[in-house]
Amino acid sequence: MTSTSKVEHFQPELGEQTTPTQDKDQVHRVLLGKKQILVTEDEPLLIQLERAGIHVEYQCREGYCSSCSIKLLWGQVSYPFEPLAWVQSGYLLACCAIVKSDIEIAFFD
Ligand code: FES
Prior knowledge:
Elements: E1 28-32, E2 35-39, H1 45-51, E3 69-74, E4 77-78, E5 91-93, E6 98-99, E7 103-106
Parallel strand pairs: 1-7
Antiparallel strand pairs: 1-2, 3-5, 3-7, 4-6
């Protein structure tokens, strides 16, 4: 039986890279400038960025304040619960966003 699923490959210029210990099917690339980290869908983005040594501003870590807002240049994230803070179009809340595809983020416009 043949598979009809589409697999896309790209090779961004790589900077630092970390490797999570999760199942490969759930691993996504997060590009931030020349850095790349690998994340899973098991934890919010903020925790995984911090683990990779990337500092993100935050206050509540629960979706209330929006201080962890990060520009989402492309890619998909989801929220396991509806954040109370307003999520501006083109941004994500790192403390509660679950990365669902390869994404590119930026801290500044
Ligand atoms: S740290 Fe408050 S919404 Fe993310």
